[in-house]
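Annotated sample (chain length 513).
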Amino acid sequence: MVRRKSRRGGAASNGESAQALRSEAYRHLRHPFAPQQVFSNDAIASIHTMALKLLEELGMKILLPEARMLFQNAGAIVNHDDQMVRIGREIIETALESTPRSYTLRAANPAREQIFEQGSLLFSAGSGCPNAFDDKRGRRPGSLRDFNETIQLQQSFDVIHKHGPSVEPQDIAPNLRHYEMMRSQLKFGDKPMFVFARGTGQVEESFELIRLGLNLSDDEFINSVWATTVINTNSPRQLDVPMAQGIIDFAKAGQLSIITPFCLAGAMAPVSVSGALVLQHAEALACIALAQITAAGSPVCYGGFASNVDMKSGSPAFGTPEHVKLSIGSGQLARHIGFPWRSAAGSASNVADMQAATENNMGLWANLQSNATLVVHAAGWLEGGLSFGYEKFINDIEALQTIAELCKPLPEDVETMGWSALADVDPGGHFFATEHTMQRYRDAFYPPLVADLSNNGSWTEAGEKTSTQRAAAIWQKVLAEYIPPAHSEAAMDNCAEFIEAGIARGGFAPAGG
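Output written by the structure step:
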């Protein structure tokens, strides 16, 4: 296929929601607070050393032969019969040296691009959910309609910084699903995009759709980060075929692998916080090494999504004290190796109730305390990831916007300190009508998206609506008024022929599927 030179425009998106008040202030956030610690520096160094020992002496089981050969050529001890790879610390140290610490996540709209580095704060919606749920239509298997709607919801709030695979469109065959998921992102969004790592064929075609849709040359694509993927290990100490292949495919194309062991303490990881972190750290280091062995200097993100299980049922738990400690400890390990890092919030609740809000908000505060660069599952995640909740998404947006307000520096000028107002008001008076108040009241305070601050009488007269009911009205209004971004029509024209040809050919079956 002949490549066209780029004529990428910089038009801003029209897909803004009227609900997203003060939204542009939320587009590029930096952590407002110093990171916290749950371990001493010496303990973090010991966890790192034990993780290196684990890789050297016990090793990782790596199911993809190509990945094992890459490690073998780099000097690792490989047994192809049992698929075990023992990785020396010098391989890890070399990989850490060659990994970039800062890069830009590119987007269709340059105003949506994000600097990905320590100190940045990015939020992504709940992802990978097989089901969707809202109060109007109930719980259902995820469909293309649901996926399109949730991309529109992600696009409509600036506090969501990159698109994520919210709901699996299960009414689309797996061999064709990547076409529709890429089409949706290009049509309804203009933020940094994701691509599932489900085999080289699907990955390369998804990359091609980004190039075509955004009218990029080969060099423009491979020399910048236009796509991200999440790489999950099969804890403990196993990397399967599609995930290993995804690391290789993304490294070769210069795109970002977000390495994320999912270590649930007491189940797939030791029951202790430090033991779970040793395993998580070792698995992340092994995957980082694979990316750098494939292509030194390729972008890769250190990640962790560690929590505990309920020891009575075996179900994952979120927002627990252990989840908070594991998040803060993960942040310490990321800073120990100098990497930006990915964490997560989330909820085990089945509905958008008090439990859901508490679990998600505790997870968000843990990520704020740990200075996580990217917080995945920040809005909409229910049932431990089995459902994406529409009302949950809107209520979580309120929490994210509250955090975003904390990221805005406070003015320190004398006039803001209010001497004129203090002098104007007699003891026992009020400040409602002072000149100081009148000049500032319109934007002095955060205007709630969902919260109802009226008194009981007014709330009763308005129908006694709960936050879930108010959230339902908001998402329905957002979707009813949605306008696609400015680049949408051109992107669809650029991609139409490629998608039609791919569907006619039968697409690509997912790796391992």
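Annotation: Confidence is low (pLDDT under 50) at residues 1-21.
Annotation: Residues 263 and 306 are 5 Å apart (CA to CA).
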